[in-house]
């Protein structure tokens, strides 16, 4: 069963003889991206626990030494490379599901569709929460006000809460799970069809876990009243 597309013929022009290395680096940064997403969704799921659980988790992250260095080195730069190179792959690829409607071909197609969704979703998510580009009512304040600002963010727009975020979470979790499945083949970890099938079950479980965590966080955040959310504990 082949899922080859024109991408395999045209992408090497981007890196020339370094194409193999760039594709491996793209896969590796995808693993880093995926690991961050898992942690991010699980931390957000603590919103459902109420009290100051979520604020405590946010404080642990923001109390890390050299946080800006860690963010750029382990999150932003890997995500930026994975996104830019991934966009190039999408632009130079030619989906062929209309000619070869195999299951894995559809997985390949939706992997690219989800990538496009994630790019726009991530731009909104980062620019709104971290930089307040779309208004201070959407900005995130991690210091004592994490839960309160999440509540205010979710209260800003029905479309943001119940359209943008569900689509973004679904696309992210699918891209993560299918990317991990394909990544195992890329690195030669699942050669046989049996190994790929077993790893597929694991990746399906990963999708279920992350999507459940993401939606749990979303529903819990949407139920918050921004006018009645207590501030987080004052740090020692």
Structure description:
- The protein is mainly α.
- The chain is built from nine helices and no strands.
- The protein has helices at residues 7-10, 12-15, 19-45, 53-62, 67-92, 103-129, 146-155, 158-186, 193-222.
- The radius of gyration is 19 Å and the shape is globular.
- Residues 1-12 have low confidence and may be disordered.
Keywords summarizing the entry:
236 residues; disordered N terminus
Give a short synopsis of this structure.
This protein has nine helices and no strands. By secondary structure, the protein is mainly α.
Name the helicity range. Answer: over 70%
Largest sheet: none
| SSE topology string | HHHHHHHHH
Portion in beta strands: under 5%
Instruction: Based on Cα principal axes, name the global outline.
Output: globular
Radius of gyration, in angstroms, nearest whole number: 19 Å
Write down how many β-strands occur, each being a DSSP E stretch of 2 or more residues: 0
The class by helix and strand makeup works out as mainly alpha
The count of helical stretches stands at 9
- Measured between the Cα atoms of the first and last residue, the distance is 59 Å
Regions with pLDDT < 50 over 5+ consecutive residues? 1-12
Mean pLDDT: 88
What's the SSE blueprint?
Layout: H1 7-10, H2 12-15, H3 19-45, H4 53-62, H5 67-92, H6 103-129, H7 146-155, H8 158-186, H9 193-222
């Amino acid at each position: 069963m082949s899922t080859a597309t024109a991408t395999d013929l045209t992408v090497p022009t981007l890196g020339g003889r370094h194409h193999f290395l760039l594709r491996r680096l793209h896969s590796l940064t995808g693993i880093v991206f995926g690991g961050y997403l898992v942690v991010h969704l699980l931390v957000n799921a603590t919103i459902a626990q109420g009290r100051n659980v979520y604020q405590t988790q946010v404080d642990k992250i923001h109390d890390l030494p050299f946080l800006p260095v860690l963010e750029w080195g382990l999150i932003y730069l890997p995500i930026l490379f994975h996104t830019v190179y991934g966009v190039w792959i999408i632009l130079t690829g030619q989906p062929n599901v209309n000619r070869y409607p195999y299951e894995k071909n559809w997985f390949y197609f939706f992997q690219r569709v989800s990538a496009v969704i994630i790019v726009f979703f991530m731009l909104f998510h980062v620019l709104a929460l971290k930089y307040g580009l779309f208004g201070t009512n959407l900005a995130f304040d991690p210091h004592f006000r994490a839960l309160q600002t999440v509540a205010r963010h979710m209260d800003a727009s029905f479309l943001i809460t119940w359209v943008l975020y569900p689509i973004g979470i679904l696309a992210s979790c699918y891209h993560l799970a299918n990317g991990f499945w394909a990544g195992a083949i890329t690195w030669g970890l699942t050669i046989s069809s049996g190994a790929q099938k077993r790893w597929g079950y694991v990746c399906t479980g990963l999708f279920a876990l992350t999507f459940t965590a993401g939606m749990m966080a979303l529903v819990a955040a949407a139920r918050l009243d921004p006018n009645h959310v207590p501030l987080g504990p004052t740090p020692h």
